[in-house]
Design goal:
The complex is a heterodimer of chains A (337) and B (329). Chain A has a domain at 241-337. Chain A has helices at 51-59, 86-92, 114-126, 130-143, 149-152, 162-173, 192-209, 220-223, 244-249, 254-262, 301-305, 327-335, and strands at 7-20, 23-36, 40-44, 67-76, 79-80, 97-100, 180-184, 212-217, 229-234, 237-243, 311-314, 317-319. Chain A is of the alpha/beta class. With 329 residues, chain B is mainly α. Chain B has one domain (47-88, 118-321): MetI-like (MetI-like fold), CATH 1.10.3720.10. Classes of the chains: A alpha/beta (337), B mainly alpha (329). At the A-B interface, helix 2, strand 6, helix 3, helix 6 and helix 7 of A face helix 1, helix 10 and helix 11 of B.
Chain lengths: 337, 329
Amino acid sequence: MNGDREILLQVRGLKTYFHTPMGVVKAVDGVSYDLHRGEALAVVGESGSGKTVNALSVMRLVPDPPGKIEEGSVVFDGQDILALPEKTMRRIRGNHIGMIFQDPMTSLNPVFKVGDQIREAIEVHLGLSRREAKERAIELMEMAEIPMARERYGMYPHEFSGGMRQRAMIAMALSCEPKLLIADEPSTALDVTIQAQIMELIGRLRREKNLGVMLITHDLGVVAGVAETVLVMYAGKVVEYAAIDEVYYRSKHPYAWSLMRAVPRLDEKRERLLTIGGSPPSLINLPPGCSFSPRCPFAEDICRREEPPLVEVEKGHLSACHFATDFESRAGEVTGL
Amino acid sequence: MTDRGRPEDRLPGREQPELMGPEIEEFEAELAAVHGRTALWSDVWRRLRHNKMAMAGLVIIILLVLIAILAPWLAPYDYDYQRINDPNVPAELKASYKNHPPSREHWLGTDDLGRDILSRLIYGSRVSVEVGVVAVAISLVIGLFFGALAGYFGGWGDSVIMRSADVFFAFPTVLGAIAIMTLLGPGLRNVFIAIGVLGWATIARIFRGSILSVKENDYVEAARALGASHSRIIWRHIMPNAIQPIIVYATMSVGGAILAEAWLAFLGLGQQLPAPSWGNMLTQYLTYYTTDPWMMFIPGTAIMISVLAFILLGDGLRDALDPRLRGSV
């Protein structure tokens, strides 16, 4: 997929483990993917599937100790990020990779004016004068569709609503024209109408600035309009990786398939929402074989014995399931479609 | 605080809104109203102002500082003017100026050498203010530095720093101060150092705890994701949010330092005579507690009022800074 575009971020065999007194938590366990310039990649999974740790690993922000990137390579824009000294890495953060967080209520420092926080980001990286940086900050706030940006420049975070704060965070993350924006559940803490606006804003900025976007979410409805490719994670591993329509309509992995079915839809009448039985496995004590097998309605003996490899089932469609090739027909039988 | 009813929520969303006429005026008025109650510190000040006890403390502290600064102009006599040894005073009157009770000439009476107690009290306030400021500043510099180091970086450095702090907690402050003074010798500067050095442990411990909770905030992570350096994160993002308990504690420990100066003076370790400090005045007047008990109450009351003022202000600050009360007044 995206064969014509330049690769911006290449992650290969990334393993990030947390060493806890209870044992080693394999939060990210051998994850590989590519993100092209201007591509929007959605990383989807439940809480604890490793999607956030994956992003923090790319930023090299995994709390160490207890976390540690054990293996793998992360190449960003031709540079091996994992080999860089911390000082160089600091220049990449904010400058080349911007990040926004889940909760805009807590991501802004309560004691500083919002505008000054955006200005600070500019001053740190671009070395502009205070006045220039201020003007740039106001431009950025306008770009992030904050009305009356000049007036709001001098306001404190508590005077902003949730949506406005997330816009301010986006302005801050994009202040130095990064090539990659990592958005960790950017709309989860917002109400639905604001969610849509924020996603649209991210989509627009991606198109205008040819920005690579990594969108981390557990809400499949949210990514539908924005993402081009989807990386589905389960228990620290990639279970399905394909273009978004492929995952939505021709999923080849029972976990991703169940996730899609669990999304409530307006055009279907359902008495109860569909769920995936059971709960995510403990990352310290993973079940043998396929991690999803205890919850999988299609599981057979082989699933409990052998871990399925991630293979390219069709061109550009990767799935880690023993029955990936004929999964669609199996799924059809179950649902009676 | 809810988000409902904020001006921006009424905006239709993606397109830049075209507000017109009265609507935009109303919007701007609302924005100005929101904008009017800015800032944490004005909030804190507003709450503090309503606290009568704290304001009383603040007024006393301001007076104390003014008295200390203006001592040469306020004091009616030189602090070392000895009326008993004044050749201009008739010999037969000299004896009456020893421990003379308050009179029109000497509002707070005279001491055993016929020195004006009011003047000595006024000059003595300089020592108290200095001890308070300098000793606490020393504690703050050491305590904040090590507290920040321990809280922010954690690990073995944290253990080493906090165990050293425990050592300082292990022996009583006064004993520690005496030990340090014995090493450094008597004198006012060494009092500052002794009290200051002994105070770092509590400040480090409070600041560490405060940082531990503040550094978990998302905005710290966000600053890191923007490529901020450790020192920038600590001093710019964590410090202003972690400093509140330190402000309260430091205010109160100024009172503690004033008290400690009196303590050390009692042992003859502080300000050396004839220069006055409230501590050495108290020590000196205690000698006469059977014959002239009024004398010891003068420096005693001054110490008590000053210490109380700092405690009242500290207490008021704690209430004013408490985030749970924020917005309730």
